[in-house]
Design a protein that fits this description.
Helices cover about 35% and strands about 20% of the residues. By secondary structure, it is of the alpha+beta class. Residues about 150-200, about 270-295 and about 755-770 have low confidence and may be disordered.
């Protein structure tokens, strides 16, 4: 039976209309399947998991000239500092995995500095090369040939870098001479191959390069390859790299773009996945394509150490955490996010057994991967007897091993399961069983060994109460048996155990507490100690006596098997071991009563335990009954965030098949690009170029100035702390009193927990002196106590404390005519200040800084529907402009930032064709009219259109700005009114309506354009950008111009056309300015040059020209100081060229229509991206009396640093000097 899963129609109707197409797609497939017109054909390819250099070179050469998908696997760190583990390739026929690194279990301690400046030591896996010497050089040469290109002549030898450099140079020369198709002519040919030749690449005769590379979100992959191998894939050549995530963003930007979702739409796998027989998986999400390969009764280890059958987890879709390993090989807890199950007739199984597994062992499919120490991930059929396998058990730390050794040498014993009692040394695991007559000491053992020992039930004996404890079964305890018992079952002591006690004497303290005693001496002589070793063989007694003498001094062994310490040896023992002895048993140790007790709970090591593979054979399940046959043919698996998980027998890995899915999806997407809408090929070609630039920006990064970072952390931290203190002050002054019993109970409960403090102990009132505004529970209580009403609830039913809700509450209080100094207004204002400053500190002031001292943010093309870029790590798009002063240019360079002047307002005028609005800008540009915002102010409020009127009425000037931008963003009257009232608090609704009518009457064509946009979006379901024809789809209903969908429709032309303008200008600047200048104008360190006055200078650093970022409508570059003026002039010339409208005609030609739009840019060049500013705060006086403080913003700079602080200074317009000292104790 075949299953084609689909989304439920009810889900689509709940504001998810954008996903309706996926249901149609699934139903279409289901009908074709029912009528025999379609059958899933997804098959698993054979991957060579242990390739040789010869097989890799031959395989990669066979891919030359073909369309190749590639993907990389790393150790999970930042792309600029990660280790490249392997590269996967697929050409539609076969897949090749190129292994570069592997782990053998060794680790090293690496010092790491976190974002707060704290230095900590991390234990990291040691990665070792899979290939070395000539083999490595040949493999890297083959990779370079395929991804960068080189003529057929082959260069052998170990000179890896020289070989790669030669390949890149020859490839660049060959690519320059190759004939490349134009963007559209190549897309509109007579057949599929010709139509897609732009994206299928150009085959250079005699080259070993691929025709084109397919990637899924390949920005990361290309950056890793550039960092690790020095290969710049598709450098400056749009069309060589086809990214499926970018293509799908153009085709259907409203759908998810993850690989599993794309495979569902563009491959034969029915809704994400299919097995070898074409059957659909019973689970489908937008994850990668896995192969599922565990028997249903395989036990999977949960994070708490318990086990459950994998079939149970899959069938119940249990959302639990499993034990897994991270990128460093440490055991971690990882949540399940997907469940999988499929059935295959004739399924074969392998069974792997180890020294620590049950008799049944680990049963899995032959091709499933397991982790083997020193050999990495191997298929089950390739695991050999003697291999070392990872177990779901954390290794004991040194302290735990020492304490366990001490308790086992004393009165505790090792126990095994009853079925292994005849052969205890062959048991897969063992446990500890013991107890003490001293209650506190027994409890202390459980406390110090959490996760190892648990308290048992006390037993009554003739000598008193015996307090028991025991442990769980541990595989590593089974291996300890040979250190404590010989083959005849006699107790022994080995040198390994004594070495353990020497490394950590805490275990010796526990042994002494069980078997030691105090030896009373005659009056005048110091007491000594004894250790009873009677239970051990004489040779072991002598071994212990010799070891104790080496550690402490003279020790005698008497004939009864008692070790007696001399006075001096006793003193050394007391000093070295005494602090680890529990106070309840210190009566045994003379002179230890005053020693501090230092034993703290011991933690497990994060490393997993290893076990040796003892057998790997075919497993033949029982098939007598129907249920047994079903079990024998059904395979199960789960997906975890970590990408792996432990069974009760060992660690297994989810198997990726990304490269094949990417290749198949890319092939189909190329056809879709020709059919989805006319301009889609042009949009994709531009986005592909833009995505390549985003990768380069991230790789380049931007320099961070640490003293400035320290200043901002200090400043915003101080604002946050002052706001918090002010809130607490309001609560302390007013008191938070409530007669509501639930409020009182909750308040007391939090007070009992220590979360808050109550000022009144007598219960007469509950005044809160201390609270944490980050706790929503406490914040809601404080607001309720202040009688501040919250009007909306969250999805979970809790009262919402979102900013818009609190802003509404503040406005409601003002509407009640409360006094401006009302404590409720003050509390909300302080809360807003606290939240804003806390967000700046927590979100933007602790970025990840790499070893090069630069921040490397991510920029993505495929997130925002309008073509604008998104950003993360940190988010440059949302980052406050006030803190951008911490980003600076490198030595002898300047940051050049270019921003369009009122771009969205101008686009509104030009796209609508409103003659009045257009004339406002033409006069302003010709310097014959006022600023547009001043003109708007005059039209809206009836004021003179002069700068003097704007200065005299700053609130109205700012309100005019609100009108312009709110309308451009599609805001309705109610929203515009709320925003205008922030600038003009006294404006009533009637006055606002008059002003809004004035604005509409001034620009009637603009408002008609807004209405027509909504009508078009509603009627056709899409809106195209004005220049490039980028299509944005809309699915939800509109109910007036202020509905969310209508607002998005009105804003879409502004943002999308703006992105067209900035993207086209950016491309001109790169192609006609930056790239040519890199080749002709840059100087190397030590080179000499003359300025315009003929003065000779020397370059003290290598010059670069880099684009660093694009933030909305702003382009940011880094250029040499000597070239900045010329660069600015050229940038302005290229950026201000008239925009061109591009339309694809029915015959495939492109109609170009120049538009008479004047879009000027403002360009600045400074060492800092933005100036660092501070409020002046100087006291203004009038007739010698202070009247107010100066609120001007002052540009400040670092003038000096002493042993205690950074000193910043700046001159204010008021004539005073601003001075700030930032303590060096603030982390930077």
């Amino acid at each position: 039976m075949h299953i084609v899963p689909a989304l439920h129609p009810a889900f689509i109707l709940r504001q998810n209309a954008r996903l309706a197409g996926t249901v149609e797609h699934a139903l279409s497939r289901a009908l074709k399947l029912a009528y025999g017109k379609w059958r899933p054909k997804w098959t698993e390819d054979e991957f060579e998991l242990k390739p040789t250099a010869d097989s890799i070179v031959a395989g990669l050469r066979s891919m030359a000239g073909r369309r190749v998908a590639f993907d990389v696997e790393t150790d999970g760190r930042h792309s600029r500092e990660c280790q490249l583990r392997c590269i996967g390739f697929h050409d539609g026929v076969r897949g090749i995995i190129v292994p570069l690194l592997y782990r053998n279990g060794d680790r090293e301690d690496v010092p790491v500095v976190d974002a707060k400046g704290n230095v900590k030591v991390e234990s990291r896996a040691v990665w070792r090369p899979y290939f070395t010497g000539t083999a490595l050089s040949r493999v890297l040469k083959a990779v370079s040939d395929l991804l960068v290109g080189a003529p057929v002549e082959h260069v052998e030898g170990p000179a890896k870098k020289a070989a790669l450099k030669t390949s890149a140079k020859k490839a660049a020369k060959a690519q320059k001479t190759a004939k490349k198709p134009t963007a559209l002519a190549a897309l509109k040919g007579g057949n599929a191959a010709e139509a897609l030749s732009k994206f299928q690449g150009v085959v250079v005769p005699g080259s070993l390069r691929a025709a084109v590379v397919y990637t899924q979100n390949g920005q990361y992959d290309r950056q890793v390859v550039r960092q690790a191998l020095g290969l710049d894939i598709a450098a400056g050549e749009t069309g060589f790299s086809f990214d499926t995530i970018v293509a799908h963003h153009v085709i259907a930007r409203y759908l998810p773009h993850k690989l599993g979702f794309l495979a569902a739409l563009y491959t034969d796998a029915p809704y994400y996945k299919a097995n070898e027989d074409g059957e659909a998986w019973s689970a489908g999400t937008d994850t990668e394509l896995w192969r599922y390969c565990l028997r249903g009764d395989t036990r999977v280890v949960l994070a708490d150490g318990s086990t459950r059958a994998v079939a149970e987890l899959v069938r119940t879709r249990a959302k639990v955490n499993l034990l897994a390993t991270d990128g460093h090989g440490n055991i971690i807890s990882s949540p399940i996010y997907d469940w999988h199950q499929n059935r295959k007739a004739g399924q074969t199984w392998r069974r792997i057994r180890t020294t620590a597994t049950s008799k049944r062992g680990l049963v899995l499919t032959p091709d499933h991967k397991v982790f083997i120490k020193g050999r990495g991930k191997l298929e089950a059929q390739d695991v050999a007897v003697g291999d070392i396998m990872l177990l779901p058990e954390r290794e004991f730390s040194l302290r735990q091993k020492s304490l366990i050794a001490g308790t086992l040498l004393g009165d505790s014993v090792l126990r095994v399961s009853p079925k292994w009692r005849k052969n205890p040394r062959e048991a897969p695991a063992a446990s500890i069983d013991g107890g003490q007559m001293h209650a506190e000491y027994a409890a202390e053992k459980v406390r110090v060994l959490p996760g190892v020992l648990t308290a048992g039930k006390p037993r009554q004996t003739p000598h008193g109460t015996f307090h028991t404890f025991a442990s769980l079964q541990f595989a590593q305890l089974r291996d300890w048996a040979q250190n404590y018992w010989d083959a005849q079952g006699r107790r022994r002591i080995t040198g390994d155990v004594l070495t353990l006690l020497r490394r950590d004497p805490a275990g010796l303290a526990w042994w002494f507490a069980d078997d030691g005693c105090r030896q009373k001496q005659a009056r005048g002589r110091s007491d000594t100690i004894c250790l009873n070793v009677q239970r051990y063989l004489r040779e072991d007694q002598e071994l212990v006596q010799q070891w104790l003498e080496q550690q402490f001094g003279r020790v005698w062994l008497d004939t009864a098997g008692v070790l007696r310490f001399s006075v001096s040896a006793t003193k050394v023992f007391v000093a070295r071991v005494g602090p680890f002895l529990h106070p309840e048993v210190r009566y045994k140790l003379p002179g230890s009563e005053e020693l501090p007790y230092v034993l703290e709970p011991a933690e497990f090591s994060p490393q997993p335990v290893m076990a040796e593979v003892t057998a790997n054979d075919e497993y033949v399940p029982k098939t007598a009954t129907r249920s047994q046959r079903l079990m024998a043919e059904t395979r199960f698996c789960v997906s975890t965030v970590a990408g792996n998980f432990f069974t009760a027998e060992g660690l297994v890995k989810n198997c990726l098949r990304d490269v094949k899915a990417t290749w198949l999806a890319a092939e189909q997407m190329q056809r879709e690009l020709l059919e989805v809408y006319p301009n889609a090929p042009l949009v994709f070609e531009q986005d592909a170029w833009q995505e390549d630039q985003c990768e380069k920006w991230k790789y380049a990064g931007i320099q961070l100035d640490r003293p400035t970072l320290r200043y901002f952390r200090w400043h915003y931290g101080a604002v946050r702390d002052r706001a918090l203190a002010a809130m607490r002050g309001v609560l302390a002054e007013v008191g938070v009193n409530s007669d509501d019993e639930n409020f009182k109970k909750l308040l007391e409960k939090l007070a009992d927990k220590g979360d808050i403090e109550l000022a009144d102990e007598d219960g007469s009132g509950k005044t809160v002196e201390f609270f944490n505004p980050a706790s929503l529970i406490e914040l809601r209580m404080m607001l309720a106590g202040l009688k501040i009403e919250l009007t909306e609830v969250t999805a979970t039913g809790q009262l919402s404390t979102a900013k818009e809700i609190l802003t509404g509450a503040r406005k409601a209080l003002l509407a009640q005519k409360v006094l401006p100094d009302d404590p409720r207004i003050a509390f909300l204002d302080y809360l807003f200040a606290w939240r804003e400053s806390a967000k700046v500190v927590g979100t933007y002031l602790f970025p990840e800084i790499l070893r090069d001292g630069r921040v490397h943010p991510n920029f993505n093309v495929h997130v925002v529907p309008t073509g604008r870029l998104s950003s993360s790590g940190p988010n440059f798009q949302n980052q406050p402009a006030e803190i951008r002063g911490m980003f600076v240019a490198r030595d002898e360079h300047y940051i050049v930032s270019m921003d369009w002047d009122a771009l969205e307002m101008r686009l509104g005028a030009f796209m609508s064709g409103d003659p009045v609005f257009v004339e406002v800008f033409r006069k302003y540009d010709a310097k014959t009219g006022p600023k547009p915002h001043i003109a708007n102010m005059a039209a809206i409020f009836g004021l003179p259109a002069t700068a003097e009127a704007a200065e005299a009425n700053p609130g109205m000037y700012r309100a005019a700005k609100v009108f312009a931008y709110a309308v451009a963003y599609g805001a309705g009257e109610d929203t515009v009114y709320e925003q205008v009232r922030e600038e003009l608090p006294d404006m009533d609704w009637t006055s606002f309506q008059t002003a809004f009518k004035n604005y509409k009457a001034t620009y009637p064509v603009l408002f008609k354009f807004q209405q027509d946009v909504v009508k078009q979006g509603t009627r056709y379901g899409f809106i195209d950008s004005m220049l490039l024809g980028r299509r944005m789809w809309f699915f939800e209903r509109t109910w007036g111009e202020s509905s969310p969908e209508a607002t998005a429709m009105q804003n879409a032309p502004y943002q999308s056309t703006g992105s067209d303008v900035v993207g086209a200008a950016n491309r001109r600047i790169m192609d006609e300015l930056v790239i040519p200048w890199r080749q002709t104008k840059l100087l190397k360190r030590g080179a000499k040059w003359k300025d315009k006055d003929g003065v000779t200078h020397v370059c003290f650093t290598d010059e670069v020209i880099e684009q660093l970022a694009q933030v909305h409508d702003e382009l940011v570059f880094e250029v040499p100081k000597r070239l900045k003026d010329e660069f600015i002039a050229e940038c302005k010339r290229l950026a201000e060229q008239k925009p061109v409208k591009r339309e694809v005609q029915k015959d495939g030609s492109v109609k170009l229509t120049p538009l008479d739009w004047n879009l000027p840019v403002d360009i600045k060049a400074k060492r800092r991206w933005k100036p660092v500013q501070a409020r002046c705060g100087a006291q203004k006086t009038e007739k010698g009396k202070p009247i107010t403080k100066c609120r001007e913003l002052v540009d400040i700079e670092l003038v000096k640093t002493d042993d205690e602080a950074d000193h910043w200074e700046g001159d204010c317009k008021c004539g005073s000097k601003k001075r700030i000292a930032v303590p060096l104790s603030v982390a930077a």
